[in-house]
Amino acid sequence: MGKVEGGYRLQNISAIKEDELPLLSVVTVVYNGEKSIERTIKSVLNQDYPNLEYIIVDGNSTDGTLEIIGKYDESIAYWISEKDKGISDAFNKGISLATGEVIGFLNADDWYEPHALSSIMSAYTPGSVVHGNMQYWNEDGSKGLFFKPNQKLLPKEMTINHPTVFVSKSLYEQYGTFSTNYKLAMDYHLLLRLYLASVPFIEVDKTIANMRSGGFSGNWINCYREVYRAKNELLGNKHKNYLFYTWQVVRRSVSETLANTPLSFINRLYRSYFSPMKKA
């Protein structure tokens, strides 16, 4: 199937409702996400921030994703479905389609808390990166880990949760978009570049987004490898980076081994007292 598109932008309808507020663009990238995309869409459209445009970039889904998106055609600013060259390419397409002053990305398996966007935009200042807390959920629907970010430790590892991140579009124009050389750690590579450029990072101490546990677990070793590669590219000092990468692998391996055993309390102690991000 070739390119398919929709949304009220094609009818020349503006997303601006209050002239004095910046326009916020939220982008969802999806491929075959029929099981979760509707919850994601509803969590965006039910936000109370008025100047919001919602953009969906679909990678030519073959399940029922497009039918679900079509149900909300009149509320979505613009959506497009066509083949892409991977997640980084789809993210960059979303940036190019966004007309807002601020851009946030919400994956098709994630969802926003009520009032999340108004909380972000209340803290936003031009030329900044705004981010907040994230709640993980277990497969059985129970609450999982709660993550509070630590932006000061970005040079070591990914300590900011990308679904909670909102970036001034001017920063993409100045410092570039997502590198297509990364398949998993493209968000870390971008945020580390912005951090090293002394871009202001603003933390909002509220839960902004929710994510189901499991998406990262199968790829964690490859993600750590890409983080290691990004640090080598941007920071140098390969020996020091390799030592920390080894520590990450050992730390995660031990955590996986102890999980669901009588010794799982060790994981809880580590998360409470030693983790670089607050995890409850």
Any overview of this molecule?
With 280 residues, the protein is of the alpha/beta class. The protein is built from 9 helices and 11 strands. Strands 1, 2, 3, 4, 5, 6, 7, 8, 9, 10 and 11 form an 11-stranded mixed β-sheet that branches. Helix 7 (220-235) runs antiparallel to helix 8. The radius of gyration is 19 Å and the shape is globular.
Secondary structure category? alpha/beta
Q: Sketch the topology as an H/E string, one letter per element.
A: EEHEHEHEEHEEEHHEHHHE
Q: What's the mean pLDDT score? A: 92
Tally of extended strands?
A: 11
The shape is globular
> How widely separated are the two ends?
45 Å
Instruction: Tell me the radius of gyration.
Output: 19 Å
Estimate the strand proportion: 15-25%
Given as residue ranges, the uncertain stretches (5+ residues, pLDDT < 50) are none
Reported for the largest beta sheet, the result is: 11 strands, mixed
Quaternary structure of the protein: single chain
Helix content: 25-40%
Separate helix tally: 9
Write the layout of secondary structure elements.
Layout lengths: L3 E3 L17 E7 L6 H9 L6 E7 L6 H7 L6 E4 L5 H11 L4 E4 L4 E3 L3 H8 L5 E9 L5 E6 L17 E3 H7 L10 H11 L4 E12 L7 H16 L2 H21 L6 H9 L4 E2 L1
Parallel strand pairs: 2-3, 2-5, 3-4, 7-10
Antiparallel strand pairs: 1-4, 5-9, 6-10, 7-8, 7-9, 8-11
Helix pairs in contact: 6-7, 7-8
